[in-house]
Amino acid sequence: DLPSLPLHPAGLIWPTEDWPVGNMPSLKIQQLADEIFDLQGAQGVTHALLIFQAAKCCYERYDAGANPIYLQYSWSMAKSITHALVGILVRQGRLDLYAPAPVPEWQNDERVHITLDQLLRMTSGLAFEEDYVDGQASDVIPMLMGEGRHDMGAFAASKPLANKPGTVWSYSSGTTNIICRILKTVVGGGASGMLRFMNDELFEPIGITSATPKFDTSGTFIGSSFLLAIPRDFTRFGLLYLRNGIWDGREILPPGWVDYARTPTYQDDEQCYGAHWWLRRQKPEWFYCGGYDGQTILCIPEKDAIIVRCGRTPEEEFPYVSERIDKIGALLPF
Question: What is the spatial distance between Cα 205 and Cα 59, in angstroms, rounded to a whole number?
Answer without folding.
Answer: 24
